[in-house]
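Subject: sequence -> structure tokens, single chain

Hey, anyone have a minute? Need the predicted structure for the following. Not urgent.
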Amino acid sequence: MPSAAAEVAGSDDGLVIAGRRYRSRLLTGTGKYRDLDETARATEAAGAEIVTVAIRRSNIGQDPSQPNLLDVLPPERYTILPNTAGCYSADEAVRTLRLARELLDGHSLVKLEVLGDRTTLYPDVVETVRATETLVREGFQVMVYCSDDPVLARRYEELGAVAVMPLAAPIGSGLGIQNRWNLLEIVDNARVPVLVDAGVGTASDAAIAMELGCDGVLMNTAIAGARDPVRMARAMRLAVEAGRDAFLAGRIPRRRHANASSPVDGLIG
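Reply:
Had a minute. Here:
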């Protein structure tokens, strides 16, 4: 059973977040590239329409003397998704997103992540819940980075999150999807978009996430850390598109034994 944003098929199939429709189901980060030129070229190759920006690490106008990310990724063309990467408390995350809203002229769509451990970068459940409650109350449209726990995903949805973003594996690990059954449970029960966030390593990981019925994939390290980021960005775009088509088409059942593709009944002679 597809989640809410997976209901429309064919040429009208699009990712709907907070009432806005996007053609691309691949969201990309903007960190870890060699320079802004590579950032722009990789984002273009990925076909991304939503790009996430770490407010505490990227200049989007806080420092007029430094290069501005928005000069190469203009808000007129891309939906800028401020995130709270590097925040370890609800208060810190809320302050960061209030600043982002001010810098982006009232922009309300945000990605919330509140980390609980500096080694694994796993989310802090208690602080993430606190931050979600506050941000929703203040009118933010919150996309929540979370562990692949179906109960927690439902809880964030109940709190008013516009999307849940379960990890596939630890941030930047490139390990791929470690627990597809949890993701399936989240997808089957969600009424908001489900986007895999963190852990993707290569194109096949992105395709699997989409084949499971996820509404989209967000990635940064898998592209920016590749030997050729622009080529990898293109590969990820194609993988997300292929995985989505495969999900909508419906795979054949798994069988223990062969099932001939050419029927043996009714052969001539």
